[in-house]
Design a protein that fits this description.
Layout lengths: L4 E6 L2 E6 L9 H16 L5 E6 L22 H10 L4 E5 L2 E3 L1 H8 L2 E5 L3 E3 L13 H9 L1 H10 L3 E2 H6 L5 E3 L4 H12 L17 H10 L1 H4 L3 H15 L2 H16 L2 H16 L16 E5 L3 H12 L3 E5 L3 H20 L5 H9 L1 E4 L10 E4 L5 H14 L5 E4 L6 H5 L8 E6 L8 E6 L5 H13 L3 E6 L6 H18 L3 H11 L5 H8 L15 H7 L12 E3 L5 E3 L1 H13 L9 H21 L6 H12 L8 H8 L1 H10 L8 H6 L2
This protein binds 3-hydroxybutanoyl-coenzyme A.
The site of 3-hydroxybutanoyl-coenzyme A (3HC) has 25 residues, from strand 5, helix 3 and helix 12.
Length: 671
């Protein structure tokens, strides 16, 4: 087998170059090749300096995650990194693309670092439930100080080359095409300089205040994220222990976390997210259609949020409304979001200006004729949507993609109102649409393969994680949600309270419980609007104007700071319903709440697979992690269910009166 690593000599400088697509992950073969190249350079008296560089789209994007959890092959990354650090000749990292995780750690062990302007550098291990395992938490605070090291290693956010240069993480930034040339120039300048600047030999300036401040500022973000907590501890140790001992502490922590089920779950999500991008039955030969102008029908919260996504990604948007007032409100919402992004440092004022310049607002439906993709984001009503699609059919140019943002309705019925159902696709954004990562791409019976391919490519372009769903009420995410919400309601009738059920879900790791979520989304969603017709608890709340946070009352009472409080009125309503239904009140355990709300979701997930409405179980996980806040460290409902085991879930489902999906065992037990 040929090595992914090659060497070439340039006037006394050895370039050790790796070409291991797609991202130059530091797998066993790469590590062996790099060590061999390094040794060659160190042993050759004609070589005065060594450069590590990569071919393809990126510098090393980290350790090879696919190797995790398997027996480690030598040389280990930490051994390789130590050899680089100890080298007696200058070693330079030439960084382009993304130097992440082990790639960043390898660069930190080099004596000099040069990066292209577009490069990004970071330690994202915490997102995999890990801490850096090749010296990142020990070298980084030595090079950039404890505060910056915390930001990088405990939050896992990569930083730009410009910022890396500002904080001293890289020595120089170059134009994108001039990296190797610049690295060669630097190599010649430093070839004979001694002593070599080894990060490991620098002193860490202790900064307990920065650590306390970091814990305080990010308390909510890192709560429950064990790996982030451990990354902070590793950085604390960097200040307390000699380098070698700090390194050993970090390594032991890394190995312990690697064996932790929470990391296995996060690694599952990493690969599941990438797998979700693949569309069954569609080959790589199907080309995407070109989309540069997007029309959006409806400038409400959803339509405006959707527009922000495309504008931020540099696509022109035509936003359409039926009244000037509604259009103005949408425009303001978009402008305010960009201003707030600028204020929060998420984008520059210039970038916001450029994005807003791409927005065109219109009252004239015919303006949609210039769009390559039109997304309907109006009220969830079949007749209105059908009417819009019939009109679109006349106005849209040939080959334009016609999309609906419906969250429940039958896409095929909508598509049938057009003469071109093959151009129709569902693009189900989640609210708030410019923030939530999930996009359900709904494949209708007639949706053309290239339309699907385009939708998936666009999702990537606007930074969404896309999952393909078939046409079924609620698609993937909301179909599971409905099961959970129904059972949560049943539990109320039997004696549980909204507070108890929500608390069980938060303790499980969800950002909020079922009733908090209902209050946030609106208790009145889907309500028939007749206060005299009260058959369900939800209808009783709606009839009294308890529509959720927006009216200051729902399943909870809200104070002026939107803090929820248990509601005596809701307690009365629940009592009335229990009496009416003759259901006796009983104490319900937290375990029962979890089993009755989550196991039916898993069962529904299996049915989705049986019906072919979801491509794979891991897609269901991705939908719930990115659309509903299912904790990534629990891997998603289907991954979590595998850990629970078929027998336990099936027995509980039967006990609570559910019919076990015929394929549930297969789904949970087939590797
Ligand atoms: N190991 C193995 N495979 C990886 C990988 C890695 N570190 N990073 C990416 N890949 C694979 C993906 O699974 C995908 O495979 P597929 O095509 O078969 O689905 C392929 O590379 C391309 O990945 P993306 O689709 O994500 O490509 P993008 O261009 O969108 O993004 C990236 C590139 C920013 C590098 C992104 O892939 C990424 O963030 N990768 C993970 C980086 C990371 O977490 N590094 C730390 C690893 S842990 C570590 O280093 C431990 C150390 O401290 C000891």
């Amino acid at each position: 087998m040929t090595s992914p690593v090659t060497v070439s000599t340039h006037n006394g400088v050895l370039i050790v170059s790796c070409d291991s697509p797609p991202v130059n992950a530091l797998g066993a073969g790469v590590r062996a090749g790099l060590l061999e190249g390094l040794t060659l350079g160190l042993d050759d008296p004609g070589v005065e300096a060594i450069i590590f560089a990569c071919a393809g789209r990126t510098f090393f994007a980290g350790a090879d995650i696919a190797e995790f959890g398997k027996p480690m092959k030598t040389p280990s990354l930490s051994d390789l990194v130590v050899c680089i650090d100890n080298a007696h000749k200058p070693v330079i990292a030439a960084i382009h693309g993304t130097a992440l995780g082990g790639g960043c750690e390898l660069a930190l062990a080099c004596h000099y670092r040069v990066a292209t302007r577009s490069a990004k550098i970071g330690l994202p291990e915490v997102r995999l439930g890990l801490v850096p395992g090749a010296g990142g938490t020990q070298r980084l605070p030595r090079l950039v100080g404890i505060a910056m090291a915390l930001e990088m290693a405990a939050l896992g956010e990569p930083m730009s080359a410009a910022r890396a240069k500002d904080i001293g993480l890289v020595d120089a930034v170059t134009a994108d095409g001039a990296l190797v040339e610049h690295a060669l120039g630097l190599a010649r300048t430093v070839a004979r300089q001694r002593p070599l600047p080894r990060v490991s030999e620098q002193r860490v300036v202790p900064d307990p205040e920065a650590i306390a401040q970091f814990r305080h500022t990010h308390a909510r973000r890192i709560a429950g994220l064990h790996a982030s907590t451990m990354a902070i501890t590793c950085i604390e140790k960097a200040a307390e222990l000699p380098f070698a001992e700090g390194l050993a502490f970090e390594r032991a922590t890394f190995m312990r976390l690697m064996a932790d089920p929470r990391s296995a779950a996060q690694r599952h999500v990493f690969f599941a997210e990438r797998q979700a991008a693949r569309i069954d039955g569609i080959g790589s030969d199907i080309a995407a259609r070109s989309v540069e102008r997007v029309g959006i029908i409806g400038a409400g919260t959803m339509g405006s949020g959707i527009a922000i996504n495309f504008l931020s990604a540099g696509l022109a948007v035509t936003l359409l409304e039926t009244s000037a007032d509604a259009l103005k409100r949408g425009q303001e919402q978009i402008a305010n979001t960009f201003s707030s992004n600028v204020a929060k440092g998420r984008m520059t004022a210039r970038q916001a200006e450029q994005a807003l310049a791409l927005l065109d607002v219109k009252l004239d439906f015919d303006a949609l004729g210039a769009c390559d993709l039109v997304i309907e984001a109006v009220f969830e009503n079949m007749n209105i949507k059908k009417d819009i699609f019939a009109r679109l059919d006349h106005v849209a140019r040939e080959g334009a993609i016609l999309a609906s943002n419906t969250s429940y309705l039958d896409l095929d019925e909508i598509a049938a109102t057009t003469s071109r159902p093959s151009d129709v696709v569902g693009l189900h954004f989640f609210s708030p649409a410019h923030i939530m990562k999930l996009l359900e791409v709904v494949r209708g019976n007639c949706t053309a393969p290239d339309v699907l391919v385009t939708a998936m490519a666009l999702a990537r372009r606007i930074g969404k994680v896309a999952v393909v769903a078939g046409v079924t009420p609620g698609f993937i995410g909301n179909r599971l949600l409905r099961c959970r919400q129904n059972e949560a309601m049943n539990l109320l009738l039997e004696g549980a309270t909204p507070e108890q059920i929500d608390c069980v879900h938060r303790n499980f790791g969800m950002p909020m419980g079922p009733f908090q979520m209902t209050d946030l989304a609106g208790v009145d969603i889907g309500w028939h609007r007749d206060p005299a017709r009260v058959e369900t608890i939800r209808e009783a709340l709606c009839a009294e104007g308890r529509w959720g946070q927006k009216t200051g009352a729902g399943f909870y009472d809200y104070d002026e700071r939107r803090k929820p409080h248990p509601s005596p009125r809701v307690a009365e309503i629940l009592q009335e319903f229990r009496k009416k239904r003759k259901s006796s009140e009983r104490a319900i355990s937290d375990d029962e709440i979890l089993a009755r709300t989550l196991f039916p979701m898993v069962n529904e997930g299996a049915l989705l697979l049986l019906e072919g409405k979801a491509q794979r179980a891991s897609d269901i996980d991705v939908a719930w992690v990115y659309g509903y806040g299912w904790p990534a460290w629990r891997g998603g409902p289907m991954f979590w269910a595998r850990e629970q085991g078929f027998e336990k879930i099936a027995a509980a489902l039967e006990m609570y009166g559910f019919v076990v999906a015929p394929n549930l065992r297969d789904v949970l037990e087939t590797p």
